[in-house]
Amino acid sequence: MNNSFITGSATLFKRLRSAWNIFLDRSPYEELKTIHGSAYSTPPHRKYLQYGNERSIVGAIYNRVAIDISELDMRHVRLDAEKKFLETINSNLNLCLTSEANIDQTNRAFMQDVVMSMFDEGVVALVPVDTSISLDNNNSFDILTMRTGKIVQWYPHHVRVRLYNDNTGLKEEVTLHKTKVAIIENPLYAIMNEKNSILQRLIAKLNLLDAIDNQSGSGKLDLIIQLPYVVKSKQRKEQAEARRQDLEDQLKDSKYGVAYADGTEKVVQLNRPAENNLMAQIEYLTRMAYAQLGISEAILDGTAEENELINYYNRTVKPIAKAITGEMTRKFLTKTAQTQGQAVVHFRDLFAIVTPERLAELSDKLTRNEIASPNDLRAVIGWTPSKDKKADELRNRNINQATDQQATDPAATQESMNVTNEFNSVTKKKGE
Fold first, then answer.
1. Spatial separation of the C-alpha atoms in residues 51 and 68, rounded to whole Å
2. What are the tens digits of pLDDT across the range 192-211?
3. What is the DSSP letter of 124?
4. What is the Cα–Cα distance from 328 to 343, expressed in whole angstroms?
5. Which of 97, 43, 58 is nearest to 342 (CA)?
6. Which helix (H) or strand (E) holds 407?
7. CA nearest neighbour of 212 among 282, 128, 273
8. How far is Cα 396 from Cα 404, in angstroms, rounded to an integer?
9. DSSP label at 53?
10. pTM of whole model > 0.70?
């Protein structure tokens, strides 16, 4: 028998022995329920807007800003004495910020949850759920997973937080010391969350407009019946009520909604649009909200120019990102780590809003002034690094390499000087 056939058969039997199909040998649902905990038809850890924010344009604004902040690159880094970036620290905290925050959320989904919760409630808590050691009586700990939580009670040195427990599948309340949890307050609280702020007034007006629309589309006829007699006495009122009930029954029981009235009766229909200045007030408050938040319609629909986007990032995105990274640095890194230059910072891709023509111009300036190498710019574009060693060099490629070699090679410089002197002596003799 062929040895290759025997080897192939053994490999096949080994694969069949260790093979497993996800749909085979499944436990009954009742057993899974007891093993895996509570079950839901929607993600229980997901943030759902409240206070009427989900029923207006405010929800779209919140979501847009949250997505833009989640696109920032947040990292656990080391800084020098002048607070300049040196290197990225390979820690579990950095893994939460760059890859996976918990079993349900990636780093970007977690950051979007943080911003949405902060906008909706005014303040949000970032709770270390899984740590290397107990949080009690320990100031130095390594964060493995974290989640967002709602602060339900405030104490002088503690807070009571409601957050999702992925072990039981329920939202539970825990009491934590303020030094162990990052409490992030909304920098735009006065605009978004104050009772009489522009955004809250806009939400109230939009809810009022929704109520009027619901009334208009409720199917009511809004009819007034003018009877041929004066309705003042009790008997006349009873007759009028009987007449109104009769018309309602006719319209309700009729197949096509047809009813009859007496020739002396007059019917007046009122279900026409009510004229008011509600829409003008909503448009005014929307413009004011956009101006105070540093957002425009062009940013929401994706047609904003470069200067408009820069203003949006500086006035809206940057303060929120600094509030998040600053609080995480203060609470999740010890004083010793901070004195050693450790911090949580955010980086923004400056080339994300640059057109291809502008990118080509910037690439030439950055390489010519020896700020970036070609491989650095290839990574920005999304190309693989070049294997040429010269692609990692910081040098001006518009200058002749021979000149560079002479500047660095004394022998080449001396040879060039000898050639120049010989040329000058020959020229001088010809002149004589």
1. 23
2. 888 888 888 888 888 887 77
3. E
4. 8
5. 97
6. helix 401-408
7. 273
8. 10
9. G
10. yes
- How crowded is the C-beta side of 18, counted as CA atoms within 13 Å? 5
Residue pair 51/306 in contact by the 8 Å Cβ criterion: no
Cα 359 to Cα 306: distance, rounded to the nearest angstrom: 13
What token pair was written down for 376? 């650095």
The amino acid occupying position 62 is Y
* Spatial separation of the C-alpha atoms in residues 397 and 310, rounded to whole Å: 31
Rounded Cα–Cα distance for residues 205 and 286 (Å): 10
pLDDT band at residue 90 under the 50/70/90 scheme: very high
Q: Which amino acid is at 125?
A: A
- In the chain, the amino acid numbered 413 is T
Three-class secondary structure of residue 95 per DSSP:
helix
Least confident residue range of 18-27, 76-85, 162-171, 180-189:
18-27
Helix (H, G, I), strand (E, B) or coil at 86: strand
User: Both tokens of residue 366?
Assistant: 């950055």
Enter the tokens of residue 407. Answer: 């500047």
Give percent above pLDDT 90 in the chain.
29
Place of tokens 């949580």: 344
CA 19 to chain centre: 41
* Run of H or E including 347: strand 342-347
Specify the length of the chain in residues: 432
Query: Which three-class secondary structure state does DSSP give residue 2?
Result: coil
Angle at 415 between CA 413 and CA 416, to 5 degrees: 65
* pLDDT 10s digits, 110-129: 999 999 999 989 999 999 99
SS3 182: strand
Q: Is the dihedral of CA 339, 341, 343, 346 positive or negative?
A: positive
* Cα(150)–Cα(124) distance, integer angstroms: 6
20 has a pLDDT exceeding 80: no
Per-residue tokens: 321: 């990102």
If one counts every other C-beta atom within 10 angstroms of the C-beta of residue 302, the result is: 7
Report the alpha-carbon angle 69-314-289, nearest 5.
80
Asked if 276 and 209 touch (Cβ cutoff 8 Å), the reply is no
Tokens 């503690």 -> residue: 158
Amino acid at 118: M
Secondary-structure percent of the chain, ordered helix, strand, coil, rounded to 5: 50, 15, 35
